[in-house]
Amino acid sequence: MSKERVLITSALPYIHGIPHLGNIITSILPADVYHRYQRLKGKNSLFICASDSHGTMHEIEAKKEGVKTEELVYESHEKVRSLLEEFNFDFSYYGITDSEQNRSTTEHIFHKLDENNYIEEKSIDVTYCRNCEQYLADRWIEGECPECGGLARGDQCDDCGELLEPKDIIDPYCTHCGKKDIEFRKSKHLFLQLNKFEDWLKEWIEGRMGNKLTRSETLSWLNEGLEERCISRDASWGFSIPKEGFEDKVFYVWFDAPIGYIGATRSWAEENNEDWEEWWRDDSIEYFQFMGKDNIPFHSIIFPSMLKGTEEQWNFADHIVAGSFILAEDVKFSKSRGKGLNLETALDVRNSEYWRYVLMALYPRNTDTTFSWDAFKEKVNKELTDSFGNYVHRILKFIDENFTSEIPDGEMDEEVAREVREKIEEMERELEDFRFRQAVNKIIEISSLGNQYFQREEPWKKMGSDPEECKDIVYTCANIVRSLAIVSDPFLPKTAEKLWSFIGMETNIHEESWTKAKEFDLRSKTITEPEPLFEKIKDDDIPDFDNEKNKSKKQGGEENMISFDEFKELDIRIGEIKEVDDIEGSDNLLKFQIDVGDETKQSVGGLKGHYTEEELVGRKVPVLVNLETSELMGEKSECMILAAVVGNKEPVLLEPERDLEAGTGVA
Predict the structure, then answer these.
(1) pTM for the structure as a whole
(2) What is the DSSP letter of 56?
């Protein structure tokens, strides 16, 4: 039986870099749609999310930029939160996992697991870089995935999503120095005994998997047999482990991240004078989780096992809903590898309403789907503009011009009313089954139905000959507009607000009742002067993204081409390295003073550990002189030494065949 209070959580966006469309299409966006839908259905819906703020990627980036990790994380958190606001996500609360509420909850769950003998100590081989003379956290080691040959990044493959151990990675290298000078050393760590929950999990998952993909991925793990999972890391950014002998380690990010749902609920409760335990310990709550398929095992196996192991009363997910990947040129969207549109650049093309519609129209429920600009244009131009937007504008314009902006008092066409109700009921069934692509398409089917009716009945011809029938036709069409406003609200909240105001409604559309969409009693309302809801996408509207994260191939297979005139603008000369200095706090950067002929310029480059000072001073190298000045680790870099890069990011300096004077041009 459906419950009156609904808890909805979305997989937390990892805030190392700006999230891309693939980060929201299967998690935050469907969660938001479902939350808005539940509210229209009269449910008390709590939508919780937060920035996933721990993990070694933040440490890596902070080290590169020469800033404190905490400073970088909170700057990223505010940036991401601002972008999510632009996408109109209606969070009840959006927090951050690096909160005191999450810390105390994480420590409590850990202590309970430890007390109940679900945590074991074990010495394991930990990656160590001899060149950097330090232990490497998972994300500080990269190489080839043993399963698919793709990019393995520490504990997971970026391409196939396989969970890995660093020792299994083929040809691993250190992300700090780029060298393969790696060994494995013994270090004591803590492990969650997942295998002890196998039998319980097999019973628990029945009826909770929201779609075929979620079930198949979960059963795949269970059928292979569960293994213990390390929950500690040799790192400094994160929650320190409150156990003697482990204070210098932190919890693995995937231990405290799902607990972040509870932590964020506690933060919401404190700010709103509510009881958080009513949402996490009261079984009158119906709990929905939304995520991408790479997050399934953490939600269907690891997180429920963590809660079960406390031997306390917790609400477990009633529905775990996962979607597949959205692809860009047949590669999974990946912000770390520069694949796909991020939220910021997407909003530069069109506002969030366009993206909310298109992404839900492409929702990859059980299989991957590919994003293309052609698909984007087709969805916007043919569906949003030509069908939905055209119908609304056409009807309201007709009322404005022929009925002095007053919706006439007529009778609803019963056949049309029946068809609209059927479409809305079909939409309900699709939403209840998490078929978002099919559900959002009902908006277009309803508007198409209205368009066909209006065109078939030709009210403009009956204005004089049969004014009463004309009123009935217009009344019918206006009521379809109201129905569209309500059912479009979960997907297109700003558009729904506009429609609501266009037809003279003064209530809050977001607090309306879903059942009103199936009642056709809108009459005697004065409409406002309508304006087009959407604009068509033209070829010129899609920019040429001239940054690495958003480039697409040009015709003929040519990519990143520049003209000869652009090449001539490059001032490349032979330079002589005069001085070399270390940069405090950097593992791979050096500062150079380079004679380029008519002046000496400073450069900062990643040659530390590859060449000694003796090998560098006096060396003649090609230098790009007219480079815009930048700053790295607080040091000004005015030019760039050109080098070849071989293997795994190993730089090799280029030298002229014979001795040349500093300043000699390269052409």
Answers:
(1) 0.78
(2) H
